């Protein structure tokens, strides 16, 4: 198989998409799962903080830090969009394992968010993992960039 030209990374903020969620959810190494209200209640009971919703200045901090991390690591930031409850990034990170890319982005964004928070700073900003999709061609790259930048506010015709 060819090498990917980019990674499409999605990470939810802490507590906003729990195992069992009514929208469905992804179980590590097992794939997409149907809603499970009991499992969602169990996951919510284990939370150590409230779910994290990012406000506008925090979203700007995340987007800026993703770009800065990419420059520092010599990765290509094709697109980044931080929403109130998740972030998408399309990153060309040649010779770097995708889990390292995701981990570095989460770690550096967490540092910046903590630096700009009140003294009783949140410890948990992001979900444990997140999605990593490999992009292999320019058509796929164009699609994920378009989705990242413009698809978040798209609503189908009723």
Automatic annotation (TrEMBL):
Q: Which InterPro entries match?
A: Transposase_17_sf
Look up the domain of life of the source. Bacteria
Q: Which GO terms describe its molecular function?
A: DNA binding; transposase activity
A Gene Ontology biological process in which this protein takes part is: DNA transposition
Tell me which stretches of the chain form a coiled coil: none
Instruction: Show the SUPFAM superfamilies listed in the entry.
Output: Transposase IS200-like (SSF143422)
Q: What protein does this entry describe?
A: Transposase IS200 like protein
């Amino acid at each position: 198989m060819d090498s990917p030209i980019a990674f499409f990374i999605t990470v939810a903020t802490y507590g906003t998409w729990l195992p069992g969620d009514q929208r469905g959810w992804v179980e590590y190494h097992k794939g997409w799962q149907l809603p499970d209200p009991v499992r969602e209640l169990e996951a919510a009971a284990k939370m150590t903080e409230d779910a994290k919703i990012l406000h506008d200045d925090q979203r700007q901090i995340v987007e800026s830090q993703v770009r800065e991390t990419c420059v520092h690591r010599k990765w290509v930031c094709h697109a980044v969009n931080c929403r109130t409850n998740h972030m998408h990034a399309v990153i060309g990170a040649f010779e770097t394992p995708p889990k390292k890319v995701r981990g570095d982005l989460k770690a550096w964004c967490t540092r910046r968010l903590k630096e700009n928070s009140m003294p009783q700073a949140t410890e948990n900003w992001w979900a444990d993992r997140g999605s990593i999709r490999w992009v292999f061609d320019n058509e796929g790259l164009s699609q994920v960039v378009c989705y990242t930048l413009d698809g978040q506010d798209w609503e189908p015709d009723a």
